[in-house]
Each structure stands twice: as C-alpha cells, then as structure tokens.
Amino acid sequence: MSDLNKSIGQAINRIDGLLKVTGAATYATDYVLKNTVHAVIFKSTIAAGKIKDIETGEAEKAPGVLAVITHKNAPKLNEKGGVRGGALLQSQNIEWYGQHIGLVVAETFEQARYATRLIKVSYEKAEPKVDFEKHKKEAIAPKDNHDAIRGDVDTAFGNAEFKIEAVYETPIEHHNPMETHSTIAFWEGDKVTLYNGSQIVNGAQGAAASTLGIPSANVRIVTPFIGGGFGSKGGQWANLVLAAVAAKAVNRPVKLALTRQQMFNSVGLRQRNHQRMRLAATKDGKLTVLAHETTTHCAIDNEFVEPCGDCSKVMYEVPNSLISYRVVPMNIIIPTYTRGPGKSTGSFALESAIDELAYQLRMDPIEFRLKNEPAKDPSNGKQWSSRTTVQCLQEGAKAFGWGKRKIEPRQNQQGEYLIGYGVACGTYPARQQNSSAIVKLTRKGNDVKATIELAASDLGTGTNTIIAQTASDALGLAVNKITVKIGDSSLPPAAGSVGSVGAASFSNAVNDACEKITDELMKKSTKQFFVRPTVANLMVSENLTAFETRADAKAPADATNYSSHSFNANFAEVWVNSLTGMVKVKRFLAVTGAGKILNPKTARSQIIGGNVWGIGMALTEESILDPRWGNFVTRSLADYHVPSNLDIGTIDTIFIDEKDTIPNKLGVKGIGEVGIVGVAAAVANAIFNATGKRVRDLPITPDKLL
Amino acid sequence: MMTEDTPDQELTEDEKQLFGQLLCEDQNQLTDFDEARRNFLKQITLAGGGILALQMFGKETFAGSLHEPLNAELPVNLENSVNVSFKVNGIKKSLDVDSRMTLLDTLRERLQLTGSKKGCDHGQCGACTVIVDGKRVLSCLTLAASCTNKSVTTIEGLAKNGELHPMQASFLKHDGFQCGYCTPGQICSAVALMGEARNGEVSYVTPNVRIKAAPIQLSEEEIRERMSGNICRCGAYPNIVDAIKEVHSAKPVAQNWNLVDQKELTEI
Amino acid sequence: MRPFKYSASTTINSAAQLLSANPNARILAGGTNILDLMKEDVERPDELVDINRLNLSVVKPITEGVNKGGISIGGLGKNAETANHPLIRQNFPLLTQAILAGASAQIRNMATNGGNLNQRTRCPYFYEVSMPCNKREPGTGCGAREGINRMHAIFGWSESCVAVHPSDMCVALAALDAVVKVQGSSGKVRSIPFAEYHRLPGEMPEKDNTLQHGEVVTSIEIPKNNFASKSYYLKVRDRASYAFALVSVAAAIEMNGSGIKQAWLALGGVAHKPWRAFEAERFLAGKAATADNFRQAAEMEMKQAKALEHNGFKIELGTRAIVLALTRAMNGGTA
C-alpha cells in the first residue's frame, strides 16, 4: 500500500470543521423551509395531580395563532412507543413540575410565545413527592438491578483495623447541550421528515414512528449536526413527536425549539445519588472490603437507575464486596443517561473513599491502588482484553510531577492559596455494536472517489472525520476523495453515539465495507495480484465508473469472553483560596488507555471535554429543587453553572497506545465517556491534599471550604 | 513526556502530512505559516471532496430543491411593525419586523443567516454573539427595531474573498470546538476581543487597571476571563484559548497530543 | 413577550413625556435586563421607549457644584466604555474593577450605567411567574423566605422580600459616594445620593429604588477622592467568571501617615441594595491598617447580619471578604 494509507492515527483537522467555523453547519433549526411556522410548548406549574381544565380561547384568538394543542384535542399517540418520559398530551395527569401540557402553533415565534401566556390552567393538586431527603428512606430495590455480593462484607468490615465508612452525595445535574432540543417537522402525504438532533438516528426514527403509529419507513430523521447531547439526545423526548403532531395539525412545516428554561424538566437529568461507601484494608494496603450502596430516585411510574457501582465492580481486587441500588419513585422527570452514566458519579464516591483510606494508612494513593490491581475482572472472572490502569498511573505520575506531593495536607501554601495534588482512576466498558455501511465508488478518468453512508451521528465527537480516515486507509484513497454521509435514517442502520460505542461501531463497519468492496472488485478482476491493489487501481483496470457494496458489521464472536474497558488516571492540581474558598484547577492531566486512537486531535478534545465536565461536577454544577413545589430554582444558565472558560486551567492528555483487537478488529475502545470518569474525585482529593478538608457532597462551592 | 511549546514550529508533522494528502502541490510552498494555511483552506474549498460534499449534503439534498427559500418579508400582518434599515455583513437590509423580534431571530428567521445560534435566548451563554458597530454584543438581547443605521457582522461575514478570517482558521487548526454550536459566537467574540486588546482595554484579572498600555499582550488567564461570556458545553476551552493565543501573538501555538507506546512504558 | 409599541426618542423631554403618558411604558436602554424579563413575562410593558439616541453617554470632569473636581458619567454610557475610560481607570479604578467583575464582555458592551442601577433582582422566584413573589406580584408572598435562599440577603431583608440587588457596579458606586442625577418630564433635575437611590424592601418590595416613573438617569457623579491607589473590588462567586456574587466587597482606604484616615466599604450580594458597611468604616477610622483591625471591623459589621436557612455561610464569607478586600486595597489594588 502507498504511504497515503496511514490516515488512521493522524491528527487531521475535522473534515466538517470548515462548516463549523463559518456558520454553515446546519443544526436542526437551521434548515430554511418555505411556510415554516413556530410552535412553543407550555408546561404544568404543579408537580403532582390533574389538570382540571385548560382555557385556550384567548390564545386561539391571538394574532397569528394557528392551533393550540392540549390533551383535549391531541391525537391518540402510543405512549409505549419509545419516547422517554411521556408528556405526550394524552391525559390530564401531572407527574412532575414542568411537564408539557400543550403547545401553541403560530405564524411567528413571537406570536406563539406570547399566546402561551394567555393559556389558563386549573389544577386538582396532589401532594408531590419531590424532597429526596424526606423520601429516600422509602427507596426500594429496583427491578433491573440485583445486588452483587461477594464474601461477607459486614463481618470483614467489623473486624477491619483500617476502614472508611462515609456517604458521598452528588446532586441532580442537567446535560444542557448548547443546542436545546429542537425539531423541524414536515409532512409529505403520510410521510414525515424530522430535522432533529439525535444521538441514535435509528432510535429516534423507531420511537417517533411507533409513537405516531406509522411505519418506520414513513419517518425520516435528519441530523447531520447536533449541538451537543451528552446523553440527553440519546433517548427521544416528547418534543420530537409533538413537532410532528403540530405539523400535521396545521399542515405546514413546524419549528419547535425548547427554551433553555424548559430544558430543565423536558429531557431528563442526572439524578441525585446518595452513595454509602464502606472500605477496609489491611495495614499493608490490601483491600478487604468494598461496599458501595447507592440510593437514588426515578420517575413516578418509570425506572431508571444510574449504575454508580460499576467502577466499584471492576477497579480493585477485593474479597468482600457489595454493590447495591435502592430507588424511590418521585415527582421529578425521569433521569437518563448523562455523560459517564454511573461511572462519573460512582467514581467520585469510590475514588474519594480510596483516597481517604490511603490517607488513613498514610500510604501514597497511587501505591495503594497498585497494590489492589486485579489480574482478572473481579465482577465476572473474565480475562481483561487489556488493562492500562498501572500504565496510566505510572506515566501520569511521571508527567505530572506527582513526586512533589506530600501525603499530609496543607503542606503547600503560596500567599493566600493552598495548593494540593489529587489522583483518581476511572474506567468505561468498550463495545462494538451492530452497524451497517455502504461504500460507493465513482470514477472519472483516473480520479476515483468514495462516498461512505451510514446512519451514524456526530455530536461533536468527530465521527465524520474518523469515518473518512478509516475509509481512506481501507480504500487507499486520500481523505479528500472521501465523502461521508451520516445523520440520516434513510442510510444503512448504525449504532448510536452513546455509551462510547460510536467510534468502534462506525469505524469497524466502514472498514468492513471498504475491505469488502476491495475483495469484490478483486473477484471481478481476471488479473493476478501479488500486492493487494487499491480500489482506484481496480476501478481503472476494470474500467468501472461506479461500484458499491454494503457490509453489516458485528463485534467479534469471542469479544464477550473477555472484559474490555477503557481505563484512565486523572491528576489534578488545585489552588484553593484559603480566605474565600474559591477553587481553581490550575493543572489537570488525563492519561487514558482507550485502544487505538483514530485521531489524536479529536480524541484529545473529547478527553478534555470530559475533564471539563468532571471539573464542573466537582466544583460548579448543581440543580436545586424547591422541596415544596418541585420546581428547579436553578432553571437557567445563569443559575446552573456550567464551567466558564476562566474555570478551566491547563489540561494535558496522554494516550497509552494500545493494540487490543479483542473487542473489535480495529482495536477501538471509545473515549467519550471515560474522559469524565474519576475527574471529580481527582479534584476533591486534591482539595483535601490542599486544605485537609474532605468534602463529600458535590459541588465543592466556596461555602463548603470556609 | 509533556511536550513543550516550540515557537519556531510552523506546521505540525501531522498537518504537513495532511497537506500532502490534500494539496498535491509542492511542499516547499509551505513555509509561511499564514500563506500555507490560506492555501490549504482554499484547496479544501476547491477540492470537491469530503467537506464540500458534506456541505452540499447538509444544505441542498434536504432543504434546497424541495422547499424554496423564504423571502425576507413575511406573509402575515405584523402588529407593532417597525421598519429597520441596517447593514448586515456589509449589505444594506431594510425590512419590517415585529417590535418583539430580536436581532438574533431576525438574522435566523428573516435573513437566512442561521450561523448565529440560540443557546439560551437570555444573555447567559454567548452563542448568539455578533459584532455590532465593532463591538461584540448579544443578538438575543438586542431588539431588531433598535438596529436602524447599525452595522452588524455575523459569522457568515468574517471570511473574505474565499479566505477564512485568521480566527476561523485558528479555531479549525486548534480544534476549538466539538459540536460546533457555540462556535460562531466564540469566534465573533474572539475577533472583537482582538480589537479590545489593541485598544488596551482591561479586564477583571488585569493586575493593575491604572497602567495604560495599548496594545496589550493577553496572558492565557486574560483570554480565559475575556472569553467567559461564551459558554462551551463540550469543554473546548483549552483549545479555544490556544486558537486565540495563536492569532493574538501571531506565533504558532504547539498542539500536544501525547501518545505513549508500550515500549516507552517498559522503561519507566 | 407581550405585544408592545416601540417608540424611539431623541430628547430627554420627549422620552420623559412618552413615559409619563403611559404608566405601562418602560425604558429601553441596553436592553439586557428588560428584554430578559419580558421574555420571562415578568415585565409586561405595552410600550418601550428607546432612549439610545439621547446624548447621555459622556464621561467628563465636573467643573462646578458640590462634586467639583469629580467625574460625571453619562446615564447611557456603556458599562464597558465607562470601565475603560482613561479618567475612570486613573481616578476610580475601584469602579473599573467592579464593572469588569460583572456579567460578560458582550453584556458590558450593551448595558448602560443607568440600566445597571435599575436592573432587577435575579431571585429565581421573581423570575419564574408561577412562583409567589411580592416584588413581581405584591401580595402573593415571598417564595424565597422559606424556600431556597442560598443566594439571598443577610442584611435589611423583610418578611416580604429577601432578594438581593445583583449589581457589582453599584457596590463600587456606593463606596464612592456617588450621586445619581435624574430628570423627568418637568425638565427638573433631581440629585439622589447613592445611599438613598436603592431601597430596602420593607413592605413595598415591588419598588427597587426611588426613581419615579417617567424619570431618566441622566448621569452619575462621582466625587473626587484620595484613595485611587488603595482600593479593590473583590467578588466571591460559585463560578470563576460570569456569575452573580455570593458576596462582593468594594474597599478603599485613605491613609493618614501610618494610620487609616478613612475607609470606604460596601458589600454586594447581601442585601436588597448595595450595603454600605458604615459600622466597619467607623471602626477603622484612625486605626492602624492591620489584619487584626480589618477582622474586627468586618466582624462588627457582620453582627447586624441575619441569615436565612441556606445562606448562613455569607456571614463568615462576608467577614473574610472584607478582610481580603481591605488587604488587597492596601497592596495597591491588585490580587
């Protein structure tokens, strides 16, 4: 193969970057369709009970209004069709504050928004369950999560000489992608097209079709660009379907964008977790007990539990272990997957507790972790396909200057600042999911080009770019000869950009399709090949102007015989103002072993993004409910503090270059999720090292350090 | 293992290689940083390959042929209609708007300039940042009615004669975005910031605001503070700072992605 | 946002007349707060009087009257221009720092000085129209009093309202003994000492300040002082930038030999108005500029504070912030 065939692993710029820096990238509401009208949703102002009546007359008479849709006149929809969280205007029932109860469609956005203010709703209020503190004792075992028990935790813990028992609290958080959930819907006959940011293109198609009660083939999801999702655009929410309902009602294209305030009770959230940890160790630092008991909340009639215990299952060798979940249904919107689901919040508890126990032993926390490194996956006894925790810790310690850290806190002060170092590890499973891809070759003279098609998505992860790089290598064509078409449900079905499966699933499917097309062209040819030819050679030699094929890729059959994960080690240097309690993470280092890195530039960005999320989790992000009414008082980006630019210091990333082809042929493990795992704990541990103060409830705002 | 800034570095090895793929031209040309970049971008635009096709895919396959573009005038009667005449990206516009219509919605819904983004609609995220009469402002909190005789520059107006504004090129090089939704606002904000630095304007993190100097050299901390009105949920901040630093200092800023192979590890 | 008539004025008189003629009319200046509140349906004017074309944005030395030797800033001057004006940076760096501690660069380019004074509270119960709020809708109760009140007042609150004034700029103006000049339809100019411009909520939280309907803030006068080299604005917040204050402090010290001749202290994020710390100022006059004295002064001031359920931390934080702001002021106004 020629030298060109080394695109994978190169730090090329995003192929869609030019569109993004010029404003030409088209997100859902950027499509200009003739005769588009605007829908604005209105919401319940109680958390539990029933709608007695909705008066819509005044709104209907307002200028420009075309329709007001409520439970009284909404079409019958299938509430079990796969839309998360209900709120499809099918009944009077109210289950959380801010549930959708109707929408106005008008000629202009200004007219629709105004008309929602003219709606009058009367309620039959019930006592809402919104105070987690009050209701957590009613928590019960969830249907889907069984307690995982090994050994005898209680006895071993009782007898242990060195032990930690503590509760770690993480608050409700919101995804808050910069693009609110937005849709343009238009019907052509009985077919509907939905421009909508969807992390799982086929998932959105299926959910919309099933909820609307029409065949999947009649729903087309178009989502070439997504303004962030972080899990909130993984599942589909009522707004997607309600846009279609509104477009049908007025027989015109409808644009429906949730407001930022509406985002807080429309598209899920990361739930509050109360995590009780019990850890014990021998004097020489061997873990003997690890119990991780999570209590959390879910929707009144729908369960979702973040797997906070996942890291605790696999990170350390320990004979006595308990992982459990208890959940209390409440009048709060159903929680959903949020970046690093379970692992990010769970690792805060686990890795803080590990740090606490290491300190109790007066042992370096890296040394303590190395002593408890498991040879096999402790949760199922499977071999690791590869595990890089040790390398991550050792390489990170060297690069970060960990040797300068003192075990005792408050040893490093500069002026009014206390400086501390912290470390914490993380992990996230690596999987390849079924995906199909079509490769189409065209030729003009000697110029051969390829188009790759699959219903993948790119929410900023770099999917477009890594697909082009993969195809470039597999076809022997330069990247600029490759066109990537994704983000459309009419393309071959593919996995979603969720749970760190995207890169592995897409790149392997594309690689398979490209290898297959080369094989097919070689079969067509009567020539003998001593070196595997490029598709360009073959197209020319066979005098073909167009050729295409499709591959349906699956994970290797024996992948599940192994335990495959990405691993990381996070290092934080914090400066805590000893007077005001304000914390700055001056320096952060993430060392990641995530298999083959397809594009170091975009991969680094992904890790940095996860780190920023983790720093936000540690220091600034919190959604606060009024326990009387169930409304979020932090319902705007002024009140919900996503980190600002000034909150972030220097971030460095190191990748351990692994060659692990057990989970998939290309050896891709995924990085979107692991980047946040362990970050909050690294920051909290650094704050302890700086101040001697152990904060176990996030976020660590200035008041907690006074 | 942490790589250090190499100020004399013009292009990364990765970039040179990419140029090799994309340019098919004499690599000796690639000596001057800016020129190389501009050539590079021109070539991308002209290549007819992945990127342009993607653009076609986004803009035309779906919306173009099927639905004719909207006229600037709306087919409905507006209450409290206000006529506004102003310049957008150098072109005179005159239209009647609902008095309630923001500059942001006017750009997006009436002038088909959808680059400016609505992230919060309440002045809390910066995604809608545009430049009005040379100053960066929030188009979501600006009434179109109040824009008469003003000159508005949006992300669509920054590239000139087929060449990217240096800030756009630098964001591209430094991967100063992920999802790209906040990017138009970030770039408009950063472009205006360069003017503020030239004028010697100070910020909350400026050590002594009584000292006058123009232009001023922005430290990383200064860039961070001055860009804090643009929220990026993907967390691209370090790359955004690098992108701005490169334009501000007119010196290449190193890009560090550190790959440690197994051999190196065994030497620890 | 309710439908409204847009009117643009070119003179103060015509603006004042338009406003006086319609009790439901509001001023449009920078728009950063009024449009935000109109979208939330908190403000419901049926007319906006755009005053941006009025010639009220000049920064100039005051050549006559009681504030002679001081500087006057126009009511319509943009926050960013005011902060960066050479006269302000040189003579009132405290004001520069305070303005630049607030909001974001974009908002400071839009927001006006008068508008900064008249901005409304960011209390979430005020902002969400389905919640009770005496400020927005008198008689409905205070949602925050028994609710989530971490960001709320510790000084001067009433059972009707525990909201805080959100401005940073105003905290500095309070410490600087500024005077607000306003003009109504009669053409008469009123001078309001800064301490009397904003109100405590009492039984009338719907009234934020003493500006009357129909009046426009024409300028703000800042008297000459001798502490430009010893002042500092400290802002403590949950996020490093672009966040409202938990507590902020404007501090300035004029020395007399080795002792403090006089100190000026005002606090933000703690009351319905910028809170002038007169107790602490009185204590510091004539004392040595030591950490001990700063601490004692701060504690004396904070004795009057009364915490709500979630904001008790503001008392200790405020004490520390006063000490730190005074320390930095003594160090020449740098961090």
From TrEMBL, chain A:
- Cross-referenced Gene3D superfamilies: Aldehyde oxidase/xanthine dehydrogenase, a/b hammerhead (3.90.1170.50), Aldehyde oxidase/xanthine dehydrogenase, molybdopterin binding domain (3.30.365.10)
Give the superkingdom in one word: Bacteria
A Pfam family (short name) is MoCoBD_1
InterPro entries in the cross-refs? Ald_Oxase/Xan_DH_a/b, Ald_Oxase/Xan_DH_a/b_sf, Ald_Oxase/xanthine_DH-like, AldOxase/xan_DH_MoCoBD1, AldOxase/xan_DH_MoCoBD2, AldOxase/xan_DH_Mopterin-bd_sf
Q: Mind listing the UniProt keywords for this protein, alphabetically?
A: Molybdenum, Oxidoreductase
**This protein's name:** Oxidoreductase
Q: Note whether Metal-binding occurs among the keywords.
A: no
Query: Per the database record, which ranges form the Aldehyde oxidase/xanthine dehydrogenase a/b hammerhead domain?
Result: 22-127
Q: Name one GO molecular function term.
A: oxidoreductase activity
From TrEMBL, chain B:
Instruction: Specify whether Iron is a keyword of the entry.
Output: yes
Alphabetically ordered keywords of this record: 2Fe-2S, Iron, Iron-sulfur, Metal-binding, Oxidoreductase
Alphabetically, the GO molecular function entries are: 2 iron, 2 sulfur cluster binding; metal ion binding; oxidoreductase activity, acting on the aldehyde or oxo group of donors
Upper taxonomic lineage: Bacteria, Pseudomonadati, Bacteroidota, Chitinophagia, Chitinophagales
Q: What is this protein called?
A: 2Fe-2S ferredoxin-type domain-containing protein
Q: Which Pfam families match?
A: Fer2, Fer2_2
Superkingdom of origin: Bacteria
Against InterPro entries, the record matches this protein to: 2Fe-2S-bd, 2Fe-2S-bd_dom_sf, 2Fe-2S_ferredoxin-like_sf, 2Fe-2S_ferredoxin-type, 2Fe2S_fd_BS, Aldehyde_Oxdr_Iron-Sulfur, Beta-grasp_dom_sf
What region holds the 2Fe-2S ferredoxin-type domain?
82-158
TrEMBL record, chain C:
Molecular function via GO: FAD binding; oxidoreductase activity
Q: Does the keyword Flavoprotein apply?
A: yes
The record ties this protein, via SUPFAM superfamilies, to: CO dehydrogenase flavoprotein C-terminal domain-like (SSF55447), FAD-binding/transporter-associated domain-like (SSF56176)
Q: Which InterPro entries match?
A: CO_DH_flav_C, CO_DH_flav_C_dom_sf, Diverse_Substr_Oxidored, FAD-bd_PCMH, FAD-bd_PCMH-like_sf, FAD-bd_PCMH_sub1, FAD-bd_PCMH_sub2, Mopterin_DH_FAD-bd
Q: Where is the FAD-binding PCMH-type domain?
A: 1-227
Which UniProt keywords are given for this protein, alphabetically ordered?
A: FAD, Flavoprotein
Keyword Transmembrane tagged: no
Q: Which Pfam families match?
A: CO_deh_flav_C, FAD_binding_5
> What is this protein identified as?
FAD-binding molybdopterin dehydrogenase
Lineage, highest ranks first: Bacteria, Pseudomonadati, Bacteroidota, Chitinophagia, Chitinophagales
